[in-house]
Amino acid sequence: MPSISVCIMERVMATFELATPEWLARHIGQEDIVLVDTRPVAEYWAGHIPGARHLDPSLFSVPRTDGPALARLQAVLTWSLSALGIAPGSRVVVAGAQNEVNAARVAWALAYAGVEHILLLDGGVDAWTGERVTAAPAVTATPFTATPQSAYLATAEEVLAAVRQAQPAGVRVIDARSREEFAGQRSNAGRTGRVPGARFWDTSRELAADGRFAAAAQLAPAVEDVVAADERAIVYCGGGGRAARTFIALQLAGHAGAAVYPASWNEWGTSDKFPVESTAV
Prior knowledge:
Blueprint: E1 15-19, H1 21-27, E2 33-37, H2 41-46, E3 53-54, H3 67-83, E4 91-95, H4 101-113, E5 117-121, H5 156-164, E6 171-175, H6 179-182, E7 199-200, H7 216-226, E8 232-236, H8 241-252, E9 258-260, H9 264-268
Parallel strand pairs: 1-5, 2-3, 2-4, 4-5, 6-7, 6-8, 8-9
Helix pairs in contact: 4-8
């Protein structure tokens, strides 16, 4: 297995796009396209889009953001993307059941690993009306070395530094949990409350009435309400999933300066090291 470095090796700005089922039907089978199915494995084996390779989103769950945890994430990315035959220049189409957070978690992890072109199947496998198969495709493993993109991942220490500097110019912490969690009325882990100074983001804005991603022109003004165009947005939630979909929504709306704090409240809310704001909002 290639060696892993915790530090960033080079900067690769990923391109994020939406793929319609019609577009996928026209391009499926092209050599540079890799289709990744992120649904539960039982659903994958019950029937999937031809050529789809299965990838379990839980592989990229990050309970902490210290050095050993990030080294593990990078090792898992190197192993899993190599096994799936993904190259940095592949156009990877990520397909969940719909536009759920686990598909977004995989898309974010691919960008963090250094994959350059990521598409999300808008509406997911449920929107696919073509053939489904039960046999897995033959895949040739390709050596892939994760090239950690620190621009896309924020650690607890980075969030803490922003809090201690009272949200310095250029950094904005965004809370992608529910309004009740933000207000300290309930919590998925440890303490209640929020990261001091964090702004609330309503994740329902990310999807249109039909469950597809909201149009960029509709989403951009909502994004501008919580983060300026020249600010780095650090997004957190309970365990990184909702934050990942918000990260994708920000990218689609044109806000490229976004990062996920993947351990989120599972880490922040369980350690007295990290301050909590719990006043009413």
